[in-house]
Structure prediction request, 347 residues.
Amino acid sequence: MKRIALYIITFVCFSACNQKYTSRIITNVDIKEFKIANSSIRAIYASDSLRIFYAGSRGNIGFKTNENSDLHLQNIVYADTLIPHFRSVAFNGNNYFALATGNPALLYKITKDHHKLVYKEENENVFYDAITFFDDNLHGIAVGDPTENCASILITKDAGTTWHKIPCAKLPPIENGEAFFAASNTNIKTIDSTVWIASGGKRARILKSDDFGFTWQVYDTPIIQGNGPQGIYSIDFYNSTTGIVIGGDYSKPKENQANKAITTDGGRTWQLVADGKNPNYKSAVKYVPNSGGKEVFAVGKTGISYSNDGGVSWVEVSKKGFYAITFVDKNTAWLSGQNKIGKLTIK
Prediction:
């Protein structure tokens, strides 16, 4: 009897593991908007379905709740005069971090009622674009435009207490005119000890490290490139092999040539999808959790689009413009935009 029971359990487990996910057909979504006056919100971290952490262009950081109230709102001013323009946020399981663009670069560690400057960099070319932590919450990484002949990459090994910049001697060279976009804090993605970073401008490439940023590889993509506003604006991976990039030409947002590509080998090779078809320019792309890598959302100032086949084909589900999207579960996501935050619900 025990052997028969074991066979039954094994068969059930095998059958369940081999069942293919059936993608949903979604043609529209419900979006509830919350206004944030006079602040461009490009960086968000979804705490749960009831609240979201955000950092804005007016040095404002805090939580926006499902009831449209702000919790623990802080307004940061550096040296009594400089208002940081935040476009990147990260969370390590205990503390939040907000990274400002421009010179000087300012990285703050955020606690409930306080903030502390943990990194500062002065350079006429400094401009940091994105920040995130690895799965262990001890290692973190940020990427910015080159100040020399390589990407500007910051790393931490102590949960964000201290940060240091990787010297160019340990990084792959970057081409003149190649840089990164601070569009939505999503041109960087980590899984386990691996990080992928997407570039744009003169080249649209993938910088990849499998060891928390110690060694690097670089891979080409077929995404539109060559001019300043062209390239990859966002990257996401569902697992270590399945990934997607999206972008286009910010100056020509209605165009949709060579602005979407997918990979099945961890980012080494990329194939264009929906080339010449919608969606057009987008600033953020995210896989829906627990969807088998099939369901994907892309957002931008041109609206919101959805794919149920891993990015091969798309439908527009909203004309509302947003900068970034982050999911808390299969049916709920938070959005950020110009003077607003949104909550997206799939019904």
